[in-house]
Design brief:
- The chain has 268 residues and is mainly alpha-helical.
- It has 13 helices and 2 strands.
- Helix 1 crosses helix 2, helix 1 crosses helix 8 and helix 10 packs antiparallel against helix 13.
- Helices cover 49% and strands 4% of the residues.
- Strands 1-2 form a two-stranded antiparallel sheet.
- It is globular and about 60 Å long.
């Protein structure tokens, strides 16, 4: 049975991979070849255009340079997406599903994913890569040989592990410039405890949340803050609507946000 893709972690890994890959896949020259002006008579023989060097990628004579660069970028993104998926999906499940919660609750996993990672652990993870991945990396001139794989992928893997297992931010530093529901940015904001304080003990006891999640907040205008507390009890908020995304899935929240977003009070 195939393992369901963790899209959030896949995006993290792709971002970690894209920097080194984009740098190596980028052509060394994307300038259109310029014609040299012939001296003397207008009917003089025009010189043959210089051939591109091995590292150059040049547009055809009739191709717009802007369109050519856009095409190169699309090709590059396609290569990165392909390689990211091939590499990520070959990782062990515990690596694909890494999170702050996972390393907090598994001492063995935390030790294996420490920074810097033990080379033996890295070797075990990379050993799961199919031969096709290594061949693809060699085909893109990202590796000179299979023996270069650890040197190329270890810093990328470490960046991914660090990002996936990073602790949550101090909630007071997450303040936004606009209400996270109606998106108005010209009115005062207050912070809404996504898991109401009165529900903390129950949330832990019932296994709804872990302790590190309890103080998560959303920054809302007074109108949206009051509305949220009118549509659901504290228990419902803690159990079912403990993120802004979950609140935004409710039709009544969407409708209220659309309405209140158009409200502008007249000055007296």
């Amino acid at each position: 049975m195939s393992h369901e893709l963790n899209s959030k972690n896949f995006d993290l890994f792709r971002d970690c991979l894209s920097g080194p890959l984009a740098q190596r896949l980028a052509p060394t020259n994307t300038k259109a070849p310029r014609k040299r002006k012939s001296k003397g008579r207008r009917s003089g023989i025009k010189p043959v255009q210089a051939e591109a060097t091995s590292g150059d990628v040049l547009p055809s004579q009739d191709e717009d340079i802007g369109e050519f660069i856009d095409k190169l970028q699309l090709q590059q993104l396609s290569h990165i997406q392909y390689l990211a998926r091939e590499i990520y999906e070959s990782f062990p499940t515990e690596v694909q599903d890494l999170s702050y919660s996972a390393v907090q609750n598994d001492a063995r996993l935390a030790e294996r994913m420490s920074d810097p990672m033990d080379p033996a652990v890295v070797e075990q993870i990379l050993a799961t890569l199919p031969a096709e991945v290594v061949e693809s990396l060699e085909a893109y001139n990202l590796l000179e040989s299979a023996s270069d794989l650890p040197r190329f992928l270890t810093p990328i893997l470490q960046d991914y592990v660090n990002a996936a297992t990073a602790p949550p931010p101090v909630w007071s530093t997450t303040r936004t410039s606009a209400c996270e529901i109606c998106e108005r940015d010209w009115i005062p904001l207050s912070y809404h405890h996504l898991i109401p304080k009165q529900m903390h003990a129950k949330a832990i006891k019932r296994g709804w949340h872990e302790e590190w999640q309890l103080n998560s907040v959303a920054w809302l205008c007074r109108a949206c803050h009051s509305f949220v507390h009118r549509i659901a009890s504290n228990e419902e908020l803690a159990r079912d609507f403990w993120t802004v995304d979950k609140l935004a899935e409710r039709e009544d929240v969407v409708a209220f946000a659309a309405w209140v977003g158009r409200v502008r009070w007249k000055a007296r």
